[in-house]
Amino acid sequence: MKSTITATTDIITTPNFIKFTALALLSISLLFLTHHLFSSTSTVTLSLPLQLSPPPPTQTSSPPPPPPPPVPNFVKTGIIDETGAMSCDFEVGDFHLQADSVEELQNVVEENDQLSENEKKSGSVTSVIGKYRVCEERLTDYIPCFNNEEETLTRNLSSSERHCPDNGLDCLVPNPKGYKIPVLWPNSRDQVWSSNVPRTSLVKKKWVKLKDDKYIFPGDEEQLPKGVDNYLNQISQMVPEISFGHRTRVALDIDCGVASFGAYLMQRNVTTLSIAQRNVNENQIQFALERGVPAMVTVFSTRRMLYPSQAFDFIHCSRCRINWTRDDGILLLEANRMLRAGGYFLWVEKPEYKNEGIQLKQWKEMEDLTTRICWELVKKEGYIAIWRKALNNSCYLNRDAGVQPPLCDSVDNSDNAWNVDLRACITRLPENGYGANLTAWPARIHNPPDRLRSIKMDADISRNEIFRAESKYWNDIIDSYIRAFRWKGFNLRNVMDMRAGFGGFAAALHDLEIDCWVMNVVPVSGFNTLPVIYDRGFIGVMHDWCEPFDTYPRTYDLLHAAGLFSIEQKRCNISSIMLEMDRMLRLDGHVYIRDSVSIMSELQEIASAMGWVHAIHDTGEGPHASWKILICEKRM
């Protein structure tokens, strides 16, 4: 027994037994630990559904979040609002100029003059073009596209129509001897400097009188013994619905004499475009423009006049030297195209045919033709007859079969006037009444007209917004010009907008009370917006700036061109356009060019070569904008 216990003790105390016992205890401990961990995981897994419900709300509320920072006041500079819609609520930007901006330009003049003197002394040349020469003295009254003196002395209309030379001017048209700065409006309505219109035979016709060094305009007393004002009163009494200055806003005076009819209508809020063919002995249009009356050299010939359909509310032909009934009435049909639906045509017969058979024959032919083209004779008093054009096509369509002249084709574009031959047919009126439904003046300036929808242009549904945005854009800019450059002191009268768009520039001048008229030129390279311009109550013309403009030299106080050169440089010679601008610009006249920075250096170079005083200014968008303003002045 003792040996057995001793043996057992020996086994327990052996190293192997001790190792085995330690390994067993470690295994039991690991097993217990593993079992405990799996039991905890199962408990968590089973308790997850119980923890999905939200915890009970606490009794204490959290503090409110801080208010958002205030939204900064951004100035809108575009016509698209934050929703992407068209909007007229925007700012163009102002000129950051001091009150002495005009003096600043004067300093530029003196610096340029001093620089020129230094260049002459040193023999250096800074301009690649050099200086343009002065043309021959015979070109003092040069009108490039109407310069054939033999043709303009004839009565052959086809031979005296517009024919432009192959090559443009390469020199500066000279001033007549003794030329003076024109008499200011409104005094110029009644008198102009005789030295500014050196050649005329109208004194012999008693249309004008020479008194000392001025031509005096007696108000057409030779043709209207009671004066133009009484004549206008007579017309208003004959047909009160004409309503000068309200219903009638835009008029055309054909073969206008010295434009006294248009000059006196201006005080009745009617803008009258006076037209006549060039005659080297009469200078009718030159007198009109010197007086400050809208006028153009043109002629009824074989092509359409450069005005859209339904342009004029009233057409006046007092003893005009036009045979309206010749060639199936093709010339009267052109007048019908330009006359607004419901507009009035006034014709005064030649009094020298009194009590002669030729007068009766002429009247019968006129009466027959006007009846066939659906004009209504509303009043005849003495030698004065007034017709009214139809309001729609119903009369034309209800004529007897075979009655001439026929209606024009429905595909005929009656607003296309550039190099389009005349057609012996009646221009159709729009079936939707566009052109006839106008508001009275002056509300029609800012009301988008119906014909805005018929203009071929990129925009469609946003046309009204673009129309209003353009008006606001130019109103803001012209307001800046008036304040920064003192336009009110320029005494502007004859103004041309060389790329007129919808006429927003002209509307701004009217709204800001600049006493002037604007020739709105619509280039043939762009959209034809002339119908909208006339519907607003302004005048304009279609023109290709690769060719000379149909006016006398020295006829405009201000030439305005926005975005013109960067477009026309692809088609035209830029220096030819600038030389044409110099021909049209009066001495002491101004030129404002808003255009791309990329073309400004070339324009400045040409301006220097012509002897203009010029300076570059930033637009309202700031010094890093893509456009700049080139301001020029033509000095004596």
UniProtKB/TrEMBL annotation:
Keywords: Glycoprotein, Methyltransferase, Signal-anchor, Transferase, Transmembrane. The keyword NAD does not apply. It comes from the Eukaryota. GO terms for cellular component: endosome; membrane; trans-Golgi network. Its main location: membrane. It is found in: Endomembrane system; Membrane. Residues 52-72 have a biased composition (Pro residues). One of its GO terms (biological process) is methylation. Residues 50-72 are annotated as: Disordered. The keyword Transferase applies. One of its GO terms (molecular function) is methyltransferase activity. Its EC number is 2.1.1.-. It is a single-pass membrane protein; Single-pass type II membrane protein. Pfam families: Methyltransf_29. Belongs to the methyltransferase superfamily. This is Methyltransferase.
